[in-house]
Structures are given as C-alpha cells and as structure tokens.
Amino acid sequence: MSARQGRHAEALAHDQRALELFRAAGHRSGEANALNAIGWDHAQLGEYARALTCCEQAIPLLEELGDRSGQAYTWDSLGYAHHHLGHHAEALTCYRRALDLFRDLGDRYYEATILSHLGDTYLVSQDRDDATQVRTKLQTLG
C-alpha cells in the first residue's frame, strides 16, 4: 500500500521486515519476492545500484522455484535500474528477458508495458530504428 501511495521509504521498511520474516520461516518464494520488492523500492528512491543488488539476489531463487512470473517482474526491475544508471545494453537485455517471460505467460498487459520500456531505452540509446519497430509492435497489441 505504501509503495502505491508513493511512500517508498516506508514501503522499503515494510519489505525489509517481510524479507526477515520470510527468511526466518524458510519461505523461499516470499524471500525472492521480497528481494524484488526491496529492489524496486530502492529504484523508486533513486538508489539504482542497491536495486540491482537486491534483484540480482532474487533471480536465482525465482529460477530455482520455477516462478516465471516472479522472474519476469524481477527482470523488469533490473531493466529499470540499469536504464536509470545509463547501462542501456544491460537494460535492453533485462527487458528482453522480461518480455519473453511475459509472452510465454500470455500476459499481454505486461508484454505491452515491457515493449514500452524497450522503446524508451532504444530512444535514449539513440537507436531510432529499433525504437520505431518496438512502437509498431506495441500498436498492434492495442
């Protein structure tokens, strides 16, 4: 609730506490999702390097658990952090992984969201041709 209301520092505190509790309970899925949430909180606070650290810890857990949805959201978070750090090639790689997962899951809403992120990253990296191709694909989803 805090994150949705833009209170990211408060959300971070709640998510860190959740991580502690999930770890204490041995709840690996909760731990992985809390790590992504903490990473996202850090990204929203402009702490992109910290976001990467948390989200990178979540990916192997999510893969081990076979949580493809969690992986997709976490790859999106990683792409967002890389994008804002100016690591455009890394952002594109992360967004492509998220896109593949959302497509496999049949999640058209997040497929469109990730295509939008890809287009934005192509634009800032001065790749107008790929940005145009992504925007065309995005229009076909509508």
Task: Describe the SSE topology.
Layout: H1 8-25, H2 28-44, H3 48-65, H4 68-85, H5 88-105, H6 108-124, H7 128-141
Helix pairs in contact: 1-2, 2-3, 2-4, 3-4, 4-5, 5-6, 6-7
Strand content: under 5%
> What would you call the structural class?
mainly alpha
Uncertain residue ranges: none
CATH level-two architecture: Alpha Horseshoe
Return Rg in Å: 15 Å
Distance linking N and C termini: 29 Å
Residue-averaged pLDDT: 93
Question: What does this protein look like?
Answer:
It is a single chain. The chain is an all-alpha fold. It has one domain: Tetratricopeptide repeat domain (Serine Threonine Protein Phosphatase 5, Tetratricopeptide repeat, Alpha Horseshoe), CATH 1.25.40.10. 85% of the residues lie in helices and 0% in strands. The chain has helices spanning 8-25, 28-44, 48-65, 68-85, 88-105, 108-124, 128-141. α1 (8-25) packs antiparallel against α2 (28-44) and α6 (108-124) packs antiparallel against α7 (128-141). It is globular.
Question: Can you give me a brief rundown of this structure?
Answer:
With 142 residues, the chain is mainly α.
